[in-house]
Write a structure and sequence with these properties.
Largest sheet: 6 strands, mixed
Order of helices and strands: HHHHEHEEEHEHEEEHHEEHHEHEHHH
Distance between the termini: 58 Å
Radius of gyration: 28 Å
Number of helices: 15
Strand content: 5-15%
Helix content: 40-55%
Strand order of the largest sheet: 3-4-2-1-5-6
Number of strands: 12
Length: 465
């Protein structure tokens, strides 16, 4: 019943969105051509042209919303507004791209803009109304599912808060069970501790419980089989929330294989189609950039050769995906044997080891451009955690928790840390925090966002040295 209620609620949202998008599309057409703020100079096109395009619009919006988690995650009001805005913006960009390259008629960009604004405002407002209506509908026509939580510590309290924060689920928590007799009768978060674990079958019958959620500490998990045997004849739904969420460090989740449930505590996002799509995007974009930037690369190489002795390309060992080392390429921006006296160190502001051309290259991150070759070779990605030198990593990994997890993603030319200002000789902890956030939330759309921000925040960063 728990899953069915979620599915019904999400179906409500999906149908709501489809119904809202339809009048918004025709409303945008009307505003542009029949109530224009900007005069119409090329005549009013037939509505049929926009009718033909509308199914593709629905497909783009539905697909983008789905990929952005609009129908698979639960948001509070602010989060939902932000998520809808981002998904609408991306949908508009895709629509403009598709019609630009495949158009058969001259579609008005103002119609698209009006549609984006109308759809965002309408979806935000109708979803707010729909949630309240759906909750009221459940309370009026459907009995709330009564939930008993077995456990009373941090995990159980977290489960209770989550249920209370989402009334659209149609659940109500009656209370907790505990193994500590002294806690029986007390209240936690306004909910009563109704008894001990051994009272489970009795409380199910007395309280007319519909759903039992086991949220016990790992230290008492051995009692689980006894408790399940105790209620094997009770007609209740049963769910288990394992006390493992504190141990999840990277893209944790649950999957099933041949009837066996597997709990992922740590997993790279680069598996299956994700790996293929990211690799294909990297290869195509890196090849295109090398072709377009070939004259610039040649000029930089010539400038380095004419102004300082030594090779044009500087090669340095770095650590990448799954701890594999590779030779990363850069335009040489420092004097030859720059670390002969210091050993492996980070570059610093106004580093005296820079060459005259190197100052310019490092200021605008142009020294990183040869890494497009590393991307083509599959050693790096356009976007990902910046690769570090093995000598420095050995000192970092013992001092900074979860440092090595950044190597569960292919190293990148730019990353979430860099576009947020954490580059060069800045806080390593903040950089790792950004890297792990990126891996947790990775998607091709996130990569695109970082690449766009890199054009300004990355290449023109104050932290570049």
């Amino acid at each position: 019943m728990f899953n069915k209620r979620i599915q019904v609620f999400r179906s409500f949202l999906f149908l709501n969105d489809l119904l809202v998008l339809t009048p918004c599309w025709f409303g945008a057409f009307y505003l542009r051509f029949y109530a224009p703020l900007i005069p119409v100079t090329k005549g009013i096109p037939p509505l049929s042209e926009y009718l033909v395009l509308f199914p593709f619009v629905l497909l783009i919006w539905a697909g983008t919303f789905y990929l952005n988690g609009i129908y698979s995650r639960f948001f509070n009001r602010t989060q939902e507004g932000v998520a809808l805005f981002k998904a609408t913006l991306v949908s508009l960009m895709i629509l403009v791209f598709v019609t630009f390259f495949f158009k058969r008629t001259d579609y008005s960009r103002l119609v698209f803009l009006y549609f984006g604004l109308l759809s965002y405002l309408s979806l935000t407002l109708t979803r707010l109304f729909l949630k309240k209506y759906y909750i009221a509908l459940q309370r009026r026509y459907f009995a709330l599912e009564r939930v008993l939580i077995v456990g009373a510590r941090e995990l159980a309290q977290h489960v209770a808060r989550t249920i209370v924060d989402h009334p659209e689920l149609g659940l109500t928590v009656t209370g907790f069970l505990t193994r500590n007799p002294q806690k029986v009768g007390t209240r936690i978060q306004g909910l009563e501790v109704q008894g001990l674990y051994e009272d489970l079958d009795r409380i199910i019958r007395e309280q007319q419980i519909n759903l039992v959620i086991f949220a016990m500490p790992l230290t008492v998990q051995q009692k689980l089989e006894d408790l399940l045997n105790l209620i094997r004849d009770e007609l209740v739904d049963i769910k288990i929330v394992p006390d493992l969420y504190r141990l999840i460090t990277l893209r944790g989740g649950l999957e099933e294989f041949e009837g066996l449930p597997f709990i992922n505590l740590r997993e790279s996002p680069l598996v299956g189609w994700n790996r293929f799509l990211k690799g294909a995007a990297d290869t195509l974009l890196a090849a295109a950039c090398l072709i377009i930037l070939a004259p610039v690369l040649a000029l930089i190489a010539l400038a380095i050769k004419l102004t300082s002795p030594g090779p044009v390309i500087f090669r340095q060992t770095r650590m990448g995906l799954d701890g594999r080392v590779f030779e990363m390429w850069k335009f040489r921006s420092m004097v030859v044997n720059a670390e002969e006296q210091t050993g492996p160190v980070w570059a610093r502001k106004e580093d005296p080891r820079r060459t005259p051309v190197g100052r310019f290259l490092r200021r605008f991150s142009l020294d990183e451009l040869p890494q497009l070759v590393n991307v083509l070779k599959g050693e790096m990605s356009l976007v990902g955690p910046r690769p570090e030198r093995p000598e420095l990593i050995h000192s970092f990994k013992d001092k900074i928790p979860h440092y090595m997890l950044r190597h569960k993603m292919k190293a990148g030319m730019t990353g979430w840390a860099q576009v947020n200002g954490w580059r060069g000789n800045t806080s390593l902890e903040k950089r790792i925090e950004c890297d792990l956030y990126y891996i947790e939330n990775w998607s091709l759309l996130f990569d695109l966002k970082i690449l766009i921000k890199t054009l300004w925040k990355g290449f023109f960063s104050r932290e570049a040295c």
